[in-house]
Every structure is written in structure tokens, then in C-alpha cells.
Amino acid sequence: MLKVYYRICIDFIDKAKQNNRNWKFPFLMYISAFFSLIILSIYIIFVKSINYVPENNYPASDKLYAIFVFFIPALLINYFLIIYKNKYKILLEVYKPSGGKLIIRFVFFCIALMLLSIFL
Fold first, then answer.
1. What are φ and ψ of residue 11, in 5° steps?
2. Which value, in Å, is the radius of gyration of the alpha carbons in the chain?
3. CB atoms within 10 A of CB 35
4. How many Cβ atoms are within 10 Å of 91's Cβ, its own excluded?
5. Which of 48, 53, 72, 114 is least buried, going by the fewest C-beta atoms within 10 A?
6. What is the DSSP string of 16-76?
7. The predicted structure's pLDDT at residue 81
8. Are 34 and 110 in contact (CB under 8 A)?
9. In this structure, are residues 11 and 98 in contact, taking their beta carbons and an 8 Å threshold?
10. CA 29/CA 31 separation, integer angstroms
11. What angle do CA 16, 65, 53 make, to 5 degrees?
């Protein structure tokens, strides 16, 4: 599973480097946003499976709550697994980018999972 994660990240990094010299910040923001969608989807599926109804119908409607619970953990995970101590340089040698194919699949997967968790 970690190999798939690294291949997706390398594909993101390759595209980000082509479009921008300062690629680290946009990379972290985009990859963390999509991973936070996955975390939010898992949360929604869990809440629906135990039939829990939050007080305000949907606690993620509070923007600050959503940032701290869904986005910050994804940001920290991505930072420490990819950027910290320039690990991306080693990963760029090990994994070859796929020209954006994995990015598109990952984005569609995140959106589809989010929609499925909301509407099912």
C-alpha cells in the first residue's frame, strides 16, 4: 500500500516540478486535500454505520473543525513521509513517474469515494 502511495506522490511531484519551481507547498496542499477527502469519507462511512447523529447534523460543517480533524493530519503525514529530510529525492530515483496517469486515477478515486460515502 505504501508503494502505491509513493508512486502517486512521485507522479504529483513530477507534475508539480514541471509547472513550478517552488513545488513543495502546492504539492503538499493538493495531496493533503485529496487525502483529507479520503479521511472524511471514512469518517462519514463510520458515522453512518453506527447510526450516530451529531448535534449539528454534520460536524465537518465547522471549517475550523474540518481543518484540524481532516486536513492537518493528512498534511503532517504527507510532510513526514515525503518532504522531511528530502526523502523525495530517494523516491524519485526508486519510482518512475507515470506522466500524470496516477494523479488522474487518484483524484477520481477520491471524488468517487466521497460521493459514494455521502449518497449511500
1. -65, -45
2. 16
3. 21
4. 16
5. 53
6. HHHH-SS-HHHHHHHHHHHHHHHHHHHHHHHHHHTT---TTS-GGGSHHHHIIIIIHHHHH
7. 94
8. yes
9. yes
10. 6
11. 120
Dihedrals phi, psi of 95, to nearest 5 degrees: -110, 140
pLDDT in single tens digits along all 120 residues of the chain: 899 999 999 999 998 888 878 899 989 999 999 999 999 999 889 888 888 766 665 555 577 777 888 899 999 999 999 999 999 999 999 999 998 899 999 999 999 999 999 898
Q: Which three cell numbers stand for residue 39?
A: 479521511
Residues 6+ apart with CB under 8 A from 34: 106, 107, 110
CA–CA separation, 34 and 28 (whole Å): 10
Residue with cell 513550478: 20
User: Per the structure block, which three cell numbers stand in for 13?
Assistant: 511531484
Amino acid sitting at position 49: S
Tell me the whole-structure pTM to 2 decimals: 0.83
